[in-house]
Amino acid sequence: MAVVGYPDDVLGERSCAVVVAERPLELADLVDYLRSRSVANQKLPERLVQVEALPKTASGKVQKYRLRDRVREEEPE
């Protein structure tokens, strides 16, 4: 999982979780899980995008700029 920002007209930016999941996942289920792990409210994602794989560099780091581009291209649900 990776969390990236996407543009918002009111706040400037909101958070989107990009997840590789074995089965379909709902945003509410992810938020409930993160809350059970004591993640602060301001850090909870406001959108969810599921992908088959996270793009990574040769050294294994997630290429967040590619995820940001993908999230911006897709319309929020």
Structural summary, described in words:
- The chain has helices spanning 27-36, 64-73; strands spanning 2-8, 12-19, 47-50.
- By secondary structure, it is an alpha+beta fold.
- It has one domain: GMP Synthetase, Chain A, domain 3 (2-Layer Sandwich), CATH 3.30.300.30.
- A 3-stranded mixed beta sheet has the order 1-2-3, with helices on one face.
- A hairpin with a 3-residue loop joins strand 1 (2-8) and strand 2.
- The radius of gyration is 13 Å and the shape is globular.
Mean pLDDT: 93
Tell me, what's the shape? globular
In DSSP terms (H or I, runs of 4 or more residues), the helix count works out at: 2
Helix vs. strand class: alpha+beta
CATH architecture term: 2-Layer Sandwich
- Looking at the structure, the CATH topology is GMP Synthetase, Chain A, domain 3
Q: How much β-strand is present in the residues?
A: 15-25%
Count all strands and give the number: 3
Helix content: 25-40%
Give me the CATH superfamily.
ANL, C-terminal domain
Q: Tell me the series of helices and strands, N- to C-terminal.
A: EEHEH
Cα end-to-end separation: 19 Å
